[in-house]
Amino acid sequence: MGGYKEDKMVVKIRTTQIGLKKPINVKATLSNVDKADEMMISLLSLDVDLEEEGQDDSGTEEKDQTKVAIENLKKERAFNKKTVSFLQDILKLTDKQIQTVKETVDYNTLGEYLNYVCGRIKGISEEAFKDVDKNSPKEQSVNSEEK
User: Fold this and answer.
1) Average pLDDT rounded to a whole number, residues 38-66
2) Contacts with 116 (C-beta within 8 Å, 6 or more apart), sequence order
3) How are the residues of the chain apportioned to helix, strand and coil, as percentages rounded to the nearest 5?
4) Quick one: average pLDDT of 10-15?
5) How far is CA 84 from CA 27, 29, 99, 115, in A?
6) How many separate helices (H) and strands (E) can be counted in the chain?
7) Which residues contact 97 (CB under 8 A, 6 or more apart)?
8) Residue 137 has pLDDT above 50, yes or no
């Protein structure tokens, strides 16, 4: 019975989307689930903030728009750094692997991959994500570059 529990707690995470070749096993512990939840909250909060600020354009001066753009860029950079740090922590990636990720993925792919990792850690099946991959030309192009 101990083997069953361990197998159920370990999820295989594909890494081709972020430029790595081998999948990584991650334990779906409460700690990792909490980290995944925190990252998803950050992702969704960023989306909401950017959407709300994009709607405030009526009658604002160019200086105010520049300030909003700077704040948005700061939020995006902070989110990217937090996401990369999360992936390095959860997937136990080396600095070299992180450099590969940074040089391989774009902003949208990073968000999609974060959603995938967090979903897998929280128990969403691999099959559920394969259905999404079939409809995503970005995923196919990233995967086709791997040899």
Assistant:
1) 75
2) 13, 14, 17, 129
3) 75, 5, 20
4) 93
5) 18, 20, 10, 13
6) 7, 2
7) 20, 88
8) no
Name which of 35, 21, 18, 42 is nearest 99 in CA terms. Answer: 18
143 vs 15: CA distance, rounded Å = 10
CA-closest candidate to residue 11, choices 98, 147, 127: 127
Going through the chain in order, the beta strands assigned E by DSSP cover: 10-13, 24-27
Among 29-38, 51-60, 94-103, 131-140, the range with the most confident prediction by mean pLDDT is: 94-103
Residue 145, CB-side half-sphere exposure with 13 Å CA sphere: 13
Residue 115's nearest CA partner among 94, 141, 133 is 133
CA-to-CA distance for 22 and 40, rounded, in angstroms?
24
Asked if pLDDT for residue 8 goes beyond 60, the answer is yes
Instruction: Give CA–CA dist 67/60, Å, rounded.
Output: 11
